[in-house]
Amino acid sequence: MDKINEAVSYIQNIYSQEPQFGIILGTGLGGLVKELNIDQVIEYEKIPNFPISTVESHHGRLLFGELSGKKVVVMQGRLHYYEGYSAQEITFPVRVMKKLGIKKLFISNACGGLDPKHEISDLMILEDHINLQPDNPLRGSNLNEMGPRFPDMYDPYDPEMIQQALKIALDNEIKIHKGIYASVPGPNLETPAEYKFLRIIGADAVGMSTIPENIVARHMGIPVFAISVITDLGVVGKIQPVTIEKVLAAADIAEPKMTFIFKELIALQ
């Protein structure tokens, strides 16, 4: 808590306004920043105790400003377990955003599609998840002032926001799926046998993020909405070698649709 409060105090000395919503941008999904009326930019490396993003396309900045007329704080660059961070370090920024005042959290990610209906650059709204990460951000002493020892996960992703987003997509003829996201440690992509296993256990998509942030948000009582961009396919007969360049290209195609849904959804909150 001391580390969280130190980071919060540093930020509030620079930017005193209270954000209503937090947004975490996934790999190749930074275009939303162009829609943001930015008031303040703070580099992660300048914030006390804040982990630093090391992945290509993750800039490592907190952006404060307005989106759809609402005050937001945007993580332009997230943290991952495969970067060497613990689950608590990965989710430290979510704790900080809560203390800054956010009421809801919006998350995006790039992932592999496991549903045969998926095509590259499709969008998938998360309705549930399967946690295959080797660490849990709530392991260890509980932060009692932030949430309960055993938080309920009946609704990991907010049902009302899911329905609102589905209507936005339908009204604007945006192809969208709904499904279950599995999170693995990475950084290697999955083997064909692993893709098959993930499908058998109920996953519709697989990535390397999102669930730790979701767990911490739900621990603190923050409703979460999340969208995946399908950047590659783990479907039998469609599996191809993948490069980061291909992932970024697929994300770039889908990003305007994702940004539109985020903007419209935040306007409704």
Question: Spatial order of the strands in the main sheet?
Answer: 5-8-7-6-9
User: What is the average per-residue confidence, as pLDDT, rounded to a whole number?
Assistant: 95
Strand content: 15-25%
**How many domains is the backbone divided into?**
1
Main beta sheet strand tally, sense and closure:
5 strands, mixed, barrel
Report the span from N to C terminus: 29 Å
* Alpha carbon gyration radius: 17 Å
Here the CATH topology equals: Rossmann fold
Structural class: alpha/beta
The coarse silhouette is: globular
What ranges have pLDDT less than 50 throughout 5 or more consecutive residues? none
The CATH superfamily name is Nucleoside phosphorylase domain
Helix content class: 25-40%
Architecture per CATH nomenclature, i.e. the level-2 architecture: 3-Layer(aba) Sandwich
CATH class: Alpha Beta
Question: Please, could you describe this protein's structure?
Answer:
The chain has 269 residues and is of the alpha/beta class. The protein has one domain: Nucleoside phosphorylase domain (Rossmann fold). Helix content is 31%, strand content 24%. It has helices at residues 2-14, 87-100, 159-171, 192-200, 211-219, 244-268; strands at 21-24, 37-43, 61-67, 70-76, 104-113, 123-131, 176-183, 205-207, 224-233. It has a 5-stranded mixed beta barrel, surrounded by 4 helices. A hairpin with a 2-residue loop joins strand 3 (61-67) and strand 4. Helix 1 (2-14) crosses helix 2. The radius of gyration is 17 Å and the shape is globular.
